[in-house]
User: Which sequence fits this backbone?
């Protein structure tokens, strides 16, 4: 299956008639996507480094 067919099936065109959708929140087109492995790694680190993670680690250290 070509990427154009997949994109057409998975990403419906944003309709200006809908109050729940606009160009600002519409998915990016394939030619606008520029993610690299560094981008995915940065996202993973950003999602993993948060307060609950530190609280879990602190409780494990305290319990030892």
Assistant:
């Amino acid at each position: 299956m070509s990427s154009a067919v997949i994109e057409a099936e998975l990403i419906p065109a944003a309709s200006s008639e809908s109050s729940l959708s606009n160009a600002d929140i519409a998915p990016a087109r394939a030619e606008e996507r520029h993610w690299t492995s560094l981008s995915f790694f940065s996202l993973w680190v950003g999602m993993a480094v948060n307060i609950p993670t530190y609280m879990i680690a602190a409780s494990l250290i305290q319990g030892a």
The chain has two domains: 1-33, 34-64. The CA atoms of residues 53 and 59 lie 10 Å apart.
